[in-house]
Amino acid sequence: MRSLIMSRIGKKSIAIPKDVNIDIKDSCVFVEGSKGKLEFRLPYGVSVEVKDGQIFVKRLSDTKLNKSTHGLTRALIFNMIKGTTEGYTKKLEIIGVGFKAQVQGNKLNMQLGFSHPVNFSIPEGINIETPKNTQIIVKGIDKQKVGEIASEIRAVCPPEPYKGKGIRYAGEYVKKKIGKSQAATK
Fold first, then answer.
1. pLDDT (tens digit, 9 = 90+) per residue, 119-136?
2. Alpha-carbon gap, residue 40 to 143, rounded angstroms
3. Is the pLDDT of residue 30 over 80?
4. Using one digit for the tens of pLDDT, what is the confidence trace for 34-66?
5. What are the chain's domains?
6. What pTM did the predictor assign?
């Protein structure tokens, strides 16, 4: 009975927008849109079919590995289509007195209270903007790469729990701890 259950995500079809070209060759999916090109190598046991302006992801057997990659493959192809048409953004905020960042050429220069400025080199395919000196916006067409770069920038100086200083995602809540002096009075 369990083998009849399909992935809820994997069985959904993906609508192909008009300005996107999909090409499948040698178990690779190539997606080209207005913002750029992406490619994805299909895992073993999963096939992709383009029919009537829709993409269908199918698994070849009901092994545990094929079941686990079925929905994942569909989600990754959907993210590629969305990335090449709209793109992805992650916003970061810098909190702290004297903390700031600015883009200089292909490097992000951050002053975060260390004895030296931190220079983060911007990889190819990623755009970083600093509309204010306390805001960092990471943009790109690859969702995974945008998230990874935003995570690496945040890891340079993560928010600390006592005053909340550091780099955090926009809207991220940092639970603050009580300091030693306030804990002694209670």
1. 999 999 999 999 999 999
2. 13
3. yes
4. 999 999 999 999 999 999 999 999 999 888 888
5. 2-85 (3.90.930.12), 88-171 (3.90.930.12)
6. 0.86
